């Protein structure tokens, strides 16, 4: 009994310490000091969750406390948000209602808690439709009060920090959701620090070995980076001191996730990632009005010390990013004569203290610099955020027939970098990088976009597919005879343009369907034929249309012409025997959709990890063609529409979408250690300066040294650059790594990687 009491006392102490830390953080912030209501919310939540524990075993109240701490410390919000964070699970998990919260804490806190309750349990539910519906709720509540999504992101961050207590397949699902939606949302709202942590935590749970390897290599190279940082910044410190500037110099180290992504995209090892170190100069301006000019004064001082890269200057000071980010980026050439090192490019980010706050805490930090008291109800007055929310509302107003299309449409603009283009009158417009002239046309007006035939960019005629660059001046050319075409979906890149084009196409399809049905009625009437489902089915089969609606649309659009063949078919005597029975039999054989949860749960035990051995790979599970996993790869199982299990690599782009959009179908999987006889195809890609005998050296390493069987070989030489793809059969990733290691030993080869 004494042991039990001691345990309770320790837990009570842990909870009190967490609450006191929250209060201390809040008191150090610029907010009005409403400690009383925060204490009241804490006591209420503590009582409501009494006796409840998380999967990790700790008291449940530690979760709301942790979320409130993130909301206060990392996002910089005030008492209303802190109280809402403390109470965010009360309505969902206890008998208290939103009305109770409103009566005790007021309508504003109740409204936020209600918004959080509506989107509880993760954005994504058990099927695609529910996912999209929950995400729509999230965006609707966000457009009413931005604090809902900010607290939800904090909630997700703490869930990710404690993800280790969940089952493997649940980890994959939650990490997939996080990378697909939450990290991009955090980025779009300017929460850079949180975005980076969400990405790293997802990476750590999905690819623990790769994460640990990169962490280990970063630790090993830390001393060398510190030397470079000290040598590089020494003359910068001297110059800034002489200028009388109050400043702070920081190292910015690339995160393990961003290093890994670069390694994957460029097919290079860790040792060939050269921009791991960047330098951040954070200065205190003598006057906020002189903030911009002081940024450029520092830039000029730096270019007097080091040569700058002409193509790598980024002016986010004059033109802030859409998420509020402001800084001046310049890349400088550093030659360390003391250590006789090669010249290397180092990026320097110049920010004021205000800009740095906004870069880390996002939009919430804006209010700190207005009057020292943050009021998030003013958020709609913020120009850039308001533009984005307007776009979100436009997309929500236009119903999407396909739920995954809806999610992907929203996703389009979350992570995009910005470019700045000008109208003929000189007005500036912000667009995602990669936007086309057609995207620009839709930012002007829907009518302009729908009748676009091309554009003049910097007074030169270009097609609507032309990709715009920052600084372009764009004049849209229109024609009343122009109409939206389905091929435009391949040209449009922004959410707004894509949504409008899809809406117009659906409207045209509805009109064509109605017109087609009327034309079919007229055809039956004119030829004195009975119109019934049997007759329509016959015409559908003749024109290879799966459904009557598709047939009506095809007739209305002029793609199907009704004529003699249709008449001949309809005037034949109806066969009531074999054909009809065969057609019915075929329809009955369709498998039930995988969304039938009972079927899936009956067939597969979600708690078990799939054992990938030679028997299951040959007889039970299929290896995905898109990523071709082999033993040693981190993998997962996915239940497809035919109720079959397909094995994907965890880092496969298709798997990333499946984890986020269909988390209920994801299964944890591991390779058996007994896999020894099966061979799997892999492709190795090599690049080098072309030399006589190079291919011979490569094949000798593969065939003679490594005794590996080659299946296919493709070689191409362009302007002296040798590129080679070889498909091989191997047992596991260890063999691939060993092979790559031997090939890299050939000094003539510039790069070797598995595709």
Average pLDDT figure: 81
* Alpha-beta classification: alpha+beta
Beta-strand share of residues = 15-25%
> What's the CATH topology label of the largest domain?
Hypothetical protein af1432
Write up what this structure looks like:
By secondary structure, the protein is an alpha+beta fold. The protein folds into six domains: 2-206, Hypothetical protein af1432 (Orthogonal Bundle), CATH 1.10.3210; 215-369, Beta Polymerase, domain 2, CATH 3.30.460.10; 384-485, Beta-grasp domain (Ubiquitin-like (UB roll)); 503-574, no CATH class; 597-671, no CATH class; 680-754, 2-Layer Sandwich (Alpha-Beta Plaits). It is built from 30 helices and 19 strands. Helix 9 (147-161) runs antiparallel to helix 10. The longest helix has 32 residues, at 495-526. The protein is globular. Residues 122-131, 367-381 and 574-602 have low confidence and may be disordered.
